[in-house]
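Predict the holo structure. Ligand: adenosine-5'-triphosphate.
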Amino acid sequence: MLEVHDLQVAYGPAPALWGVSFVLRPRELLCVVGPNGAGKTTLIHALAGMLRSRGGRIDFEGRDITALPPHRFCEAGIAIVPEGRRLFGGMSVRENLEIGSLLPAAKAYRAKSMASVLALFPALQAKLGQAAAELSGGQQQMLAIGRALMACPRLLLLDEPSLGLSPLIVSEMFSAIQRVNAEGTAVLLVEQNVAMALRVAHRAYVLEQGRMVAEGTPDALMQRDEIRRAYLGS
Ligand code: ATP
């Protein structure tokens, strides 16, 4: 569904991704884990069209989208839940959700999408008229995911959805992500919370210093001593 070949991204003279290649299969919940500064956010931004690549190629559903203008990525079926949520704090929860479905194709399904987002995150129902800034951290993350889902994406990109949330809320969030995936949306998740990410992913890659250094099912990765030592504390 998504094929990334030899992707290179740099900030000025400083490379952040050094020729990253990977595939995401249809309906897959794929996870990219790695330490601070490995390049996870850079990868997500490149896949959402927010950063231009210096080299390499991104194919989505058989189409080369490497040079697609940033504002066309959403239309192409890719939505991002950015790190730190980036909600419109002064606007209501309903308005934040509606903003997710501004494009004509998504707007036609707005009522249906709103109903499925509220079924996924019932806590948002009572908050629809409230300003996004007044929500708890967990509810804000739900809203950020809901806003992305309002665009009816076929690929959902999530950047560190566990950041700053309590373990219980993280667990609820990941269950919701699994449900979204089970209903047919492919998911690419980048995470520092390796234990949680490996619990839900079908398959995972390990990104270190801008390079993919390992790939496998969660079970296979967890059997590797160096991965367990580096990421799981054992
Ligand atoms: P974190 O979990 O801390 O967000 P990450 O794996 O997402 O880490 P990135 O944020 O993608 O990593 O950063 C990858 C590299 O690119 C790091 O060396 C970082 O310092 C550098 N970098 C990131 N953003 C910029 C920027 N705007 N300008 C210059 N360098 C940047």
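The pocket of adenosine-5'-triphosphate is lined by residues 11, 14, 16, 34, 36-42, 192 (CB under 6 Å). The chain has nine helices and ten strands.
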